[in-house]
């Protein structure tokens, strides 16, 4: 553990908690955290060359903020990048707290040789006051977003009847038709289920023309999160045929529809509609109230020509609310190295992808 950073009345420090302790902290800070801030996610990324750095902020003995950062050596540039995927989680409206947290983070980052701190907070684009604080602290927009900045959120607090009533007519029809036709939704986290989903995922990617990470990344990641009890696969089956699947992750009162895939069989039965609905019901039964459908085009790109417009239409049919976040922001900690990394990082990214058939993030 590093020494405490006293930024009165706040204390910011790195900790080395158990998985249960860390996840409890994350899900109980303002906003309730994200699955990419979970202990299991940090440990999975550790296998790929990222070192987890877990930081918490206290006020009067109460934990009021957390951030899981991942440290990555930026060879050939001396030092490292310190990246918080979908974090940190802070009382963003409290400027004193935000300033205290990043003073502490900057000190810890400097001690660890990091030249750049990268964050991906779920601060909404319309929160101009919070964005102004971040700009004053020296954050600047990164050249691209590592995770989708725009998502569709569904509140699961209402009754099932109310949720269904809030859906679009075509969505309700799709759910009911799949049920009438005998489509069944099952959970299958076995090795067979994982490989079934991978094959569907390949079919879906080819059909829709999108890039995806290789088997050597995806399957171990799915396995790791399932073993941590924070993810599962649901499948839509019909008369012995596995038609569609989805990978759902959860932490505290939140759930994420992380990946979806389908075959080219019996698509007229609308298996994906029933699959989504049953995943929502599964979450609701376990007290989960926040259902994140994860990725849709940003508002300025939301048009019929966008390759993900169909995905948006499908998700919008369930009655959720669009939330657009600020995306990836960088804070230079060591100016010379940070500028050098910013200049050569695109070359590093392209070279890594060409050699590894993957991305390093």
How would you describe this structure in keywords?
single chain, 361 residues, alpha+beta, eight-stranded mixed beta sheet, seven-stranded mixed beta sheet, 11 helices, 39% helix, globular
Q: Would you mind describing this structure in some detail?
A:
This protein is an alpha+beta fold. It is 39% helix and 25% strand. The chain has eleven helices and 15 strands. An eight-stranded mixed sheet has the order 1-2-3-4-5-6-15-7, with helices on both faces. A hairpin with a 2-residue loop joins β1 and β2 (10-15). α3 (95-111) packs parallel to α4 (128-137) and α6 (169-180) crosses α9. It starts with a strand and ends in a 5-residue tail after the last helix. The model has no long low-confidence stretch (mean pLDDT 95).
């Amino acid at each position: 553990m590093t020494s405490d950073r006293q930024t009165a009345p706040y204390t910011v420090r790195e900790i080395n908690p158990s998985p249960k302790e860390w996840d409890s902290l994350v899900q109980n800070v303002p906003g309730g955290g994200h699955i990419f801030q979970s202990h299991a996610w940090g440990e999975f990324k550790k296998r790929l060359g990222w070192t987890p750095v877990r930081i918490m902020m206290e006020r009067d003995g109460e934990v009021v903020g957390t951030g899981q950062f991942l440290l990555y050596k930026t060879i050939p540039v001396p030092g490292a990048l310190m990246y918080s995927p979908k974090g940190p989680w802070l009382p963003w409206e409290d400027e004193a707290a935000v300033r205290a947290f990043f003073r502490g983070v900057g000190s810890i980052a400097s001690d660890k040789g990091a030249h750049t701190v990268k964050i991906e907070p779920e601060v909404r684009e319309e929160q101009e006051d919070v964005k102004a604080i971040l700009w004053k602290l020296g954050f600047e927009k990164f050249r691209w977003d590592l995770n989708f900045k725009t998502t569709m959120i569904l509140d699961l607090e209402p009754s099932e009847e109310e949720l269904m009533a809030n859906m679009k007519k075509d969505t309700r029809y799709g759910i009911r038709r799949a049920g009438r036709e005998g489509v069944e939704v099952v959970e299958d986290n076995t090795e067979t289920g994982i490989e079934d989903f991978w094959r569907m995922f390949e079919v879906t990617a080819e059909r829709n023309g999108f890039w995806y990470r290789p088997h050597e990344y995806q399957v171990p990641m799915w396995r790791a999160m399932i073993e941590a009890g924070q993810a599962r696969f649901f499948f839509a089956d019909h008369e012995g045929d596995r038609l569609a699947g989805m990978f759902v992750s959860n932490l505290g009162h939140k759930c994420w529809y992380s990946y979806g895939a389908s075959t080219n069989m019996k698509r007229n039965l609308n298996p994906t509609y029933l699959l989504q609905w049953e995943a929502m019901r599964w979450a609701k039964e376990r007290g989960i109230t926040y259902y994140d459908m994860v990725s849709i085009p940003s508002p300025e790109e939301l048009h019929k020509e966008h390759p993900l417009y169909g995905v948006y239409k499908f998700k919008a049919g369930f009655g959720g609310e669009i939330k657009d976040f600020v995306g990836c922001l960088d804070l230079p900690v060591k100016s010379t190295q940070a500028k050098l990394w910013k200049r050569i990082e695109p070359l590093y990214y392209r070279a890594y992808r060409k050699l590894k058939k993957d991305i390093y993030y």
